Amino acid sequence: MQNTEEIWRLVDAKKSDFEALSDRVWHMPELAYTETRSCVEHTAALREQGFRVTERVADIPTAVMGEAGEGGPVIAILGEYDALPGLSQEAGVAEQRPLPGPGFGHGCGHNLLGSAALLAATAVKDWLAANKLPGRVRYYGCPAEEGGAAKGFMVRDGAFRDVDIAISWHPAAFAAVQEALSLANTRIDFSFAGRASHAAAAPHLGRSALDAVELMNVGVNYMREHMPSDARIHYAYLDAGGVAPNVVQPTAKVRYLIRARDLIELRALIGRVKKIAEGAALMTETKVESKVVSGVSNLLGNRPMEQAMQANLDRLGPPPFDDADRAKAAEFQATLSDEDIAAAWRKMGLAVRKGVSLCDVVVPLDLKGAPMVGSTDVGDVSWVVPTVQARGATYAIGTPGHSWQLTAQGMLPAAHKGMVHVAKVMAGTAVDCLRDPALVAAAKADLAARTADSPYEPVLSPDVQPPFGMSTAA
């Protein structure tokens, strides 16, 4: 449809600056809590656009906040800019071709995520100034979504205490309101300490920490049959005790990622995993210590905000992709399986349409698909602030998340069009809140009702600090 709304025109007026920001961040992929250059880029953009800037939000070096406006409700628009390991890829090339360097890549599209969120916040800032209305818009540059739980630490330490509404988005294959469905999770390191000895001459004097980790893994594997079907447990060895098989390994460390449908189930599952670790230590006559690395809550929905965002999507229509965009996306679809492509349609509750490479519809609000559930630290924000998220169509249908194909599409014209499109959706939703106090009141009432029987209790206790070294250790 014809873009006739003032807020959309304000997005279009500055879109080239933020497309360029997205591309710069794509070229400097940085892992959780090491996003120094990416944060500098976002901070510079905030200053250039006239925001009042607060650095080191919640004492996190790569978290930043910019605010504009005076009085009125506070609307937060959340951005991210962390990358992933092992997903380096040459831009625009539909065959696996990693770039030289450490191997990092924006395989979840966070270069787009932060840039579109900041574009939306800038448009809202300009709208407030042009209309001389009370209200404040904030952009939160949030690091370490990929496992670092930065928003959880920011929420725990009060960074969202005075926010009225929070809005965010995530790159996707389709344009939609994000269903508020995610798993609460925590990452816990289990460190076992035993006793070294000569594995041949004196094996009876050794107590193997590696044996303890292996027994723990066996115990957790047996537990999988007896836990809720939508819970998930994953693990990775951080220290297998060394490379000498003729030494009984005196130390070993394993990181567990425990996921559950909600915080109540998560806490119960954590307790069971800890008992298994203690049992493994008893069996091997070793000692075990556990340390929480990070944790996030499950997402809470907000019906009034979801309806408001859907109304913006419906007025705007699907992203304006052209034949060249669709042809390029088809090249990437050719690298995928039929199962990949069909799963993307089913996830949204849509019938599979063969030969369609890019989104050309707006997904209805209440269409339920086959959920493929992960976790996000936006969940913690949603427990303390009415929160809504969009899905922005920025890549070929069927592209798996956390893949080289997604990295490769991060600077294509279709990605730029998708990020501008979703910036308009977010900015329009923010303007609805600034225009309509009743919408904000309804959103707050919805959150109060959802949390009445289970008030927010952070997964992260006060003694847990952000794992600033997690990417270096990996």
Question: What does this protein structure show overall?
Answer:
There is one protein chain. By secondary structure, the protein is an alpha+beta fold. It is 40% helix and 18% strand. It is built from 15 helices and 13 strands. The chain has helices at residues 6-13, 15-26, 36-48, 110-131, 150-156, 209-223, 263-284, 303-316, 323-333, 338-347, 378-384, 404-408, 413-435, 437-451, 470-473; strands spanning 52-55, 64-70, 74-80, 84-85, 104-105, 135-142, 165-172, 176-177, 184-193, 232-239, 251-260, 287-296, 387-393. The strands form three sheets. A seven-stranded mixed beta sheet has the order 1-2-6-3-7-13-8, sandwiched between helices. It has a four-stranded antiparallel beta sheet with strand order 10-11-9-12. Strands 4-5 form a two-stranded antiparallel ribbon. Strand 1 (52-55) and strand 2 form a beta hairpin. Helix 8 crosses helix 13 (413-435). The protein is globular and about 80 Å long. The termini are far apart. 55% of the residues are buried. The model has no long low-confidence stretch (mean pLDDT 96).
